[in-house]
Write a structure and sequence with these properties.
With 842 residues, the chain is mainly α. Helices cover 68% and strands 0% of the residues. It has a two-stranded antiparallel ribbon with strand order 1-2. It starts with a helix and ends with a helix.
Length: 842
């Protein structure tokens, strides 16, 4: 108890901690400091075995190393365990903080050793009794910045962690079940919570109070919850295999898990979600065992009772705290949200699968309990009720759950209709509004048969409770939800609402042109509105003249805005500032064109063609912007579908600046995909459009590959990640040439612009087929030659081109491929390499 004794104890504990660090938990830095890592590990195992009484294995000994050479009580590990146990017994009952500090550090050191010392030492009745006593004597009160956890609470935490280390030790299920029964863990924990009285063993004056947040410091309860979860997962595995001897323990385990789950703290409730989910999974697969082991009453099985209780707890715990601000960038609020996401995903959805009728009744009661009208309900209460409705579909089978729920569950369909008929859109909180709109989109099938409900929803979604809401998050989210709604119900169902929606969207997209000055829509979210406009105009059955007039009304101010930006004298001096808005402008036109992907009317194609001319000016003026280059590629890929052959006259003017400023791997991929799509769509008709770009693109790819980020030539010994990156870039060159040939656009290879590079192109593909280690690339290059042989064997190309090609096939391609196939590394049983073999055989 003296000052000198404290330091003596602490010195011994520090020594034992250092010993544990050295032989059990060595740091990575220590391991990597010596080249012979395996020798270090072997030496540590020898030291640990010697401490446990095993003879050290050497080449000259024939001792049985599977059993200790001395009794367990005489080992060094036993001596350490005894000293720690005695120290804990001497210090844990003191009222002195100085002595209790020693007890806490002793338990922390003991935690390191109980995970590997002989199990009989770790589960010794005297030691376990000390751990239970320390666990159950946590201090009352709330732990926060003003009230830190006391030494007794810290001791409770460390004792819980010691018990957890014992229960998670590796062994088979039968032995683990025997250990948990021997420890009598869950009956004793239940006694400490005072939730059970019929317990054989009594612990005097031990208590963990889950009934009140002020009763026990939360750190102790959180540690108990973690112990309950880990030990419970071990117990249920053995209990399922042999229920009879462990039924009483399983009953107490379940009770402890329920207490933890219902506690008003995510630090206590969160850890046991995994265990409760495991119990629900067990009930789903082995419900008979549960009902047989625990019985039931009043015609209700024990499984029904468990599920009902969990559902009630989940409904309570899903409510956000009263001061929750829905700021998901805040760390604490993010943790609260993640906790509720676990409740929904791991528990609520499982319960829906198990007892959908009970869930429907629960949702009905929750909604009925809300005050009328719903616009005046407490945010936390209505948010929980709506959240249950939203996630209900995730548990219904067969998928898609939303359609199944609306088709088969009559009462649930009535809940959805009642929500649409309520005044929930008048609720003042933005998250309630968004959750309702999410529900409306998820269960949009009901709106197809209810035009009045759809009209009502669209009015709210497009008004001051939606797209014109004062909060930017609501406006942004509603842009996406409107698009989802249109796609879900279909453009034909939306036909009666097309004109007012398109007119309203135009006001939102160009507020400066209207006197009402609505709230602005963020540029990225406005892209959803452009896509909505395109779908409604192009797919709802409007007359062509109406489509043209409306599309022109949307595009004209947008194109004028682009032209105005291009005239800014600072355009090229501030690429980043101008590049982003111009790239979004290009994407907007691409999104709008989605409404006319198949056989658009000629008049509409002319409108889009006029916009393309302005878009070409953007890439010509600002090709150094990566955002503009990427957006241009997206636009062209869209216009290939919408404009058809009309896009071919524009492609050379776009491809030239795109390829000339191709500096990134993403640029290479974009250009390759663009030329590939052109070949796939137009076949040999693509030749004039890509003729001047093919060789330039190939040279650009090789230039990027041969230089690293600093512009210096790379060596042959590249790091693996750089080698992978370069092969990925090179792959795009192979892919583009492959698409050119397989889609019969082969004439570009021997055109006047490219004939001089034909031999280099062919050798590039030979190199890809013969030397590149990736069998997929080798197959692509082999298919290139197979396709050319098929086409040029009939002299489809000029005679001198065919002669050059076949000379190279016989002198370089075939000999190289035979050498590759005959190499010992070539595995014919590998699926990809087998495909290479088949291509060569063709």
């Amino acid at each position: 108890g003296g000052h000198q004794d404290k330091h003596s104890y602490l010195m011994h504990l520090c020594f034992l901690d250092a010993l544990s660090d050295e032989i059990v938990y060595p740091s990575v830095a220590e391991d990597s400091s010596n080249g012979n890592l395996q020798a270090q590990r072997d030496r540590r195992e020898q030291v640990k075995d010697a401490m446990r009484g095993f003879a050290i294995k050497t080449a000259n000994t024939s001792t049985d190393h599977t059993k200790p050479s001395i009794s367990v009580e005489r080992t060094e590990a036993a001596a350490i365990a005894r000293w720690l146990s005695e120290t804990l017994a001497q210090t844990s009952n003191s009222n002195s903080d100085e002595v209790l500090e020693i007890a806490v550090k002793t338990a922390a050191t003991l935690k390191r050793y109980v995970s590997w010392i002989e199990l009989s030492l770790a589960s010794n009745a005297g030691l376990v009794s000390l751990l239970y006593s320390g666990l159950g004597h946590a201090s009352p009160g709330i732990s926060d910045d003003d009230e830190m956890p006391t030494h007794r609470t810290l001791l409770s935490v460390e004792c819980s962690m010691c018990l957890r280390e014992i229960t998670v030790r590796g062994m088979d299920d039968e032995k683990k079940l025997s250990l948990l029964i021997q420890l009598n863990l869950f009956p004793l924990l239940s006694q400490m919570t005072n939730s059970q009285t019929n317990v054989e063993s009594k612990l005097i004056d031990c208590r963990l109070d889950f009934s009140d947040v002020d009763a026990t410091q939360v750190e102790a309860l959180a540690a108990t919850a973690e112990l309950t979860n880990s030990a419970g997962l071990e117990l249920i595995q053995g209990w399922e295999n042999d229920p009879i001897p462990a039924s009483r323990h399983m009953e107490h385990c379940l009770e402890m898990a329920m207490l933890c789950l219902a506690y008003d703290s995510i630090d206590v409730s969160g850890p046991v979600i995994e265990l409760i989910a495991r119990c629900l999974n067990s009930i789903e697969k082995k419900e008979t065992i549960w009902n047989t082991s625990f019985g039931g009453s009043n015609g209700e099985t024990v499984c029904d009772k468990i599920i009902s209780r969990v559902l009630a707890i989940v409904g309570t715990r899903m409510a956000y705290p009263s001061d929750f601000r829905f700021d998901y960038e805040d760390e604490e609020e993010s943790e609260e949200e993640m906790y509720r996401a676990q409740l929904r995903k791991q528990l609520f959805v499982r319960i829906v699968r198990l007892r959908k009728t009970a869930v429907e009744a629960f949702m009905g009661v929750s909604l009925s309990a809300l005050p009328q009208p719903l616009s005046r309900a407490q945010t936390s209460d209505i948010e929980v009720a709506l959240r249950l409705v939203y996630h209900y579909a995730e548990g219904r089978r067969p998928p898609p759950g939303a359609k199944t729920a609306l088709k088969q569950d009559v009462s649930f369909r009535e809940i959805i209709i009642a929500l649409h008929q309520s005044d929930v859109t008048g609720h003042p909180h933005r998250e309630v509004l968004l959750l309702y709109y999410d529900i409306a989109v998820r269960y949009a099938t009901v709106l197809k048969d209810s035009p009045d409900l759809l009209t009502r929803l669209l009015g709210a979604l497009s008004g001051e409770h939606g797209l014109q809401h004062s909060h930017e998050r609501v406006r942004s989210r509603c842009c996406y939800l409107l698009l989802r709604l249109v796609k879900s119900v279909g453009a034909e169902v939306m036909r009666p609402h097309v004109e007012p929606i398109v007119d309203g969207i135009q006001i939102l997209l160009f507020p400066q042109a209207h006197s009402s000055k609505p709230a602005s829509i963020p540029p990225n979210d406005a892209l959803y509105l452009f896509e909505v406009t395109g779908i409604l105009l192009g797919q709802s059955g409007l007359d062509v003249d109406v489509q043209v007039r409306s599309a022109t009304a949307v595009l004209t101010p947008h194109v004028q805005s682009i032209e105005q930006t291009l005239q800014d004298p600072n355009l090229t001096s501030d690429v980043e500032a101008f590049g982003e808005p111009l790239s979004i402008s290009l994407l907007a036109i691409a999104q709008l064109s989605k409404g006319w992907q198949k056989n658009p009317p000629g008049e509409l194609q002319r409108v889009l063609t006029a916009a393309m001319a302005v878009c070409r000016n953007v890439i010509v003026a600002l090709p150094m912007s990566p955002l503009v280059r990427n957006s241009t590629s997206v636009l062209l890929q869209r216009m290939i579908l919408s404009l058809g052959h009309l896009v071919l006259e524009f492609l050379p003017g776009f491809l030239a600046p795109l390829i000339s400023h191709c500096t990134l791997e993403e640029d290479v991929l974009d250009c390759s995909q663009l030329m590939n799509q052109t070949c796939i769509k137009f076949k040999d008709g693509a030749c004039p459009a890509i003729d001047s770009s093919v060789v330039v693109f190939l040279r650009k790819v090789l230039a990027i590959q041969l230089h690293d980020a600093d512009g210096t030539s790379t060596s042959d010994s590249l790091p693996p990640h750089l080698l992978t990156e370069q092969l990925s870039i090179r792959k795009q060159a192979f892919s583009t040439l492959h698409h050119i040939v397989t889609n019969k656009a082969t004439a570009v290879l021997y055109s006047d612009a490219n004939i001089g590079s034909l031999n280099d192109v062919l050798k590039l593909m030979v190199d890809g087929a013969v030397t590149v280690p990736d069998p997929v690339m080798s197959k692509t290059c082999s298919q290139f030659f197979v396709a050319l042989i098929d086409q040029w064997s009939n002299e489809a190309a000029p005679r001198h081109v065919c002669d050059t090609f076949f000379d190279l096939v016989y002198t370089e391609f075939l000999p190289g491929m035979m050498q590759r196939i005959l190499d010992n590394s070539f595995n014919l049983k590998d699926a990809n390499q087998n495909r290479v073999f088949k291509e060569v055989c063709r």
